[in-house]
Amino acid sequence: MESARKDSVRRQxxxxxxDYRDEPVFAEGEDLRRMVESVALHGTETLxxxxxxxxxxxxxxxxxxxxxVGCDLTEQMVDVANQFARQxxxxxxxxxxxxxxxxxxKDASFDLVTCRFAAHHFPxxxxxxxxxxxxxxxxGTFLLVDHxxxxxxxxxxxxxxxDRMRDPSHVREHRLSEYRDWFLxxxxxxxxxxxxxxxxxxxxxxxxxxxxxxMRQRLVEHLQSASPACKETFSVTLDxxxxxxxxxLKCALIHGVKGA
Length: 260
Ligand code: SAM
Hints:
The chain is of the alpha/beta class.
């Protein structure tokens, strides 16, 4: 089951790696600046970025730390990220193929670990968090950014159904209460640094995932038939013909300090 999920991730992200390099949501997100500014950096740190995608997070941190490694399950993403770093002439970053749930790094080898918009694809997030805690030095910080599910069952089901229909490699948007429990279990403190909504244009969102047409139609119906609470929470906007224009996902930046 887990390996089927990981095959699904590789299939999904090998077809559109370049889109993730160019998409403003990933390349220019305000959250990147927020992540960098949320930690005191001295330029001596080593950083691991898990689920690095096209490399935006590692590349945003690179000027502020000594060395960055990004790891990602999808080989094509790793290739795109390495090319991107070369193109930007950033030399203290390298990207390697690797699984968040089985990190090939020594215990206590990084000052910082980051993971941005990737954890909702991990079949066993608690396993990934245990690995992240293992490779962090004592006192090191983990920075997680992801979209999350509200605590309410209806809202949770709505957003997870939406994301899973669009992209079969989506596992689950977790609740912040779930993250809190997992962080504490693996020896990380838990602090929500900020929460915000990210607005996604519907057409661009399904195009990036290469969602097949029949499934796009089901997504349209899912958004159109959303309850008033779901429409309000996720700020669903429809045009005059009733077709979805955009909606928001709920995002958070969380810090976990090892052994704090
Ligand atoms: N972090 C990137 C950024 O800041 O632009 C965006 C990440 S992209 C939306 C999600 C990435 O997670 C994909 O490249 C995918 O291959 C990766 N991924 C999914 N499951 C993974 C796993 N178990 N281990 C490592 N990477 C994984």
